[in-house]
Amino acid sequence: MARRSSLSIRIVEGKNLPAKDITGSSDPYCIVKVDNEPIIRTATVWKTLCPFWGEEYQVHLPPTFHAVAFYVMDEDALSRDDVIGKVCLTRDMLASHPKGFSGWTHLMEVDRNEEVQGEIHLRLEVVPGTHASRLRCSVLEARDLAPKDRNGASDPFVRVHYNGRTQETSVVKKSCYPRWNETFEFELEEGATEALSVEAWDWDLVSRNDFLGKVVVNVQRLRSAQQEEGWFRLQPDQSKSQRGEGNLGSLQLEVRLRDETVLPSTCYQPLVQLLCQEVKLGTQGPGQLIPVIEETTSAECRQEVATTLLKLFLGQGLAKDFLDLLFQLELGRTSEANTLFRSNSLASKSMECFLKVAGMRYLHGILGPIIDRVFEEKKYVELDPSKVEVKDVGCSGLHRPQTEAEVLEQSAQTLRTHLVALLSALCRSVRACPAVVRATFRQLFRRVRERFPSPQHQNVPFIAVTSFLCLRFFSPAIMSPKLFHLRERHADARTSRTLLLLAKVVQNVGNLDTPVSRAKEAWMEPLQPTVRQGVAQLKDFITKLVDIEEKEELDLQRALNSQAPPVKEGPLFIHRTKGKGPLASSSFKKLYFSLSTEALSFAKTSSSKPPFSGCPRKAPSSSSPASGLRRRWRKRALAAPTSCRSSMQMTLAGPRLSTCSASV
């Protein structure tokens, strides 16, 4: 049995932030710290006081963590980044919100005396004497102290205060894990109520010493116990704190704490076997477990249930069968073809998660060049006449500015170019589509055609495929490329508008250019010829995608059995803190990883072939690069104190492959 704590974090947006640049704006980003250890850095949103991030993270932590803090920073190219403010949520505060903390919170000032971390090992005892007892304090060691110097460490020493007397340890140079083993004694007066104060400081030769944290010991309680030894967490100096809530703006967050007890995998095997048996038998079997799960799952946790079930069946090699069962269940209760897969049902959520897990590399291959081109060109694009701003475009020639009609025509031409490039790349990608994705779409297409066989519903199977491929996969990735790891930074306002309009056009193509989609925004009419041509291309692509001969299907099945799809893939950040001050800057090294049920792979870029691949889950070779990498990281993680392991645990643990506790 093991206990596990995890945080679901969504950093939504900020508003009314103060201007930190001479331009009257800021370049805000967020740093997330757990017990003062930085583990997350969002992208920078440039030149805005109301940034939108919309970034989500799942962080696994030790159950003993105390608080999570969100720092809003202003990025500067030439000087140190400015601290705008912070929001701190304690473990008790999060535990009081079982459904998660959600809402706007005011940013607070950052006080240097509060930015402490680490623990100190003390031995405290009351020693009886002939005339009076003596208080003995042994300062043994400390760990995980805040790095205050530019070398990424500190020069710590300890001051012990009691009854007006102060004694100090020696200075340990360049260490966040110092050892002192020094003992101090104080005369203990009868009836004295003063507390013993132990303060850790960073020694500086030129500037003022930096405060590292303190521990206050109740002497009266120590009299009763006579002796106490252990690790004490360093606390901020609240007496000097001047936290204020001024005009620093607000931050919208969604944070949920989960404390879980994970039993041995054998305890879950009966349930896993029952689920797998039901999926294998499909609707022909007597099982009703999947329908019961679907009916009893609330809308708030449906995404989580879908993700967990999908990863379980991916690990068992039954993802396609699981999705096929959900398709049949939803088709069985759907009477109107135009409402098929339009709700956030378990089938829709599971398929959406499946595409993100199994098709992310495919998505990057199709959309990557188009998204890069949009970001690099930074063209002004607008089709809505009520929003056209000619002044933003500049001059088309030497003597006159562009007219509104010219702006609209140029914008339409830009969107046509991007849409044609996207559809051309898509049509060429039939063979590049992952085998498990092709097989799943083929099952979906066949099931929908069997359910709606009449000629008037001949487009329904195509719409069923495009509702996932275009509306739930490609369009969201176009609108928010940062959230799909297509870009490292969020788009500026101009680029965001171009991406939004392109996503709308892709949605119209995905809806097969229905009258309803055309009627929503009449100003999209200039793109209709391109949209109609795109519909024909998309239908031809889907026909080829799902048209698998019997021999090819056998080859495809063998490919599914031999090549496990990735359970999780994406960027992996390794940070090293450097610099001086309570918010030391962190340099992040970025790798891309792909984790399947059979292998763990790493690469420097998302498009390059992973150099460390084919690492088997069972009995890895002791000489394989990936196993060596895992050993080095495991050794590093075990050598670090508990509070230092959270970031490594977040990035290395990834999804658990045991079917009992699969999670990201």
TrEMBL record:
Span of domain Ras-GAP: 301-511
Residue ranges annotated for the C2 domain, each copy included: 1-105, 116-232
Disordered: annotated segments: 606-632
Keyword annotations from UniProtKB, A to Z: GTPase activation
Keyword flag Zinc: no
Name of protein: Ras GTPase-activating protein 4B isoform X2
Species, as recorded: Microtus ochrogaster
The gene coding this protein: Rasa4b
